[in-house]
Please model this.
Amino acid sequence: MRALQLITDRRIEIADLPAPPAPSLGEVTVAVKAVALNHIDVWGWRGMAFAKRKMPLTIGAEASGVVEAIGPGVSNVLPGQLVSIYGARICGRCHHCVAGRDNLCENVGGVHGFHLDGFAQEKINIPARQLVLAPPGVDAVAAALAPVTFGTVEHMLFDNAKLQPGETILVHAGGSGISSAAIQLAKKMGCTVITTVGSDDKIERAKALGADHVINYRVDRFEGVVRKITKKKGVDVVFEHCGGCRLREDVKRVGTGNQLDGHVVDEVPALAEILGDI
Ligand SMILES: [Zn+2]
Model:
């Protein structure tokens, strides 16, 4: 079977690999139908000195596929069903996994497509606990996009920020992938969505996704516009995934103090300092 592999940093080739054997206990054989592309794939392609991994490595951290065969003890999926594949090798036993907080797994074995062989291959054997059944009406391409971007946004908006229908949310960086998901999900549940963009050509796209108000922050100071739109009340939720100084400004200037949610990957000390301030 074909697999797309990273041979060395910045070099990808199609390889011919043996198909997986029959699935063992708790495993499922999935015929991969669609693979998404995320920043983690770009980081993996460029090469990161700290990443513990061996090459060649099959790429692809986010994907969907059809269940082809199930191993003994598998009860959450059936052959023929379309599934999203979760990219982290979670243990399924620690208290976080049992509570459904897989992202906090204490024994995570790496990320597929980055540390471990990924999903850009025709078939893969994968633990059943890493599969999520696609709802009716969701096709393979849409299902492939669910785990990383939409999963992250779902966690930020609903698990952490507890966004409620009718609330007003400020979504920063409306042109980014993660904010595109946030605009759509917030609008779907009946929120007023204000978003910021850095250029005029992103305004119409943000509106098409469902944003009620789009602010070009290079033209207007978003704080003033937000206060005007909300009649000085401020927003209920600030969706911020850039971190650092901007988060401090968001909370001081436009937040009502109810909800704060940041997904910060590279500025943890700055975030800690900010959280100490508020
Ligand atoms: Zn775990």
Q: What stands out?
A: Residues 54 and 215 are 45 Å apart (CA to CA). Confidence is low (pLDDT under 50) at residues 261-278. The chain has two domains: 2-144, 152-277.
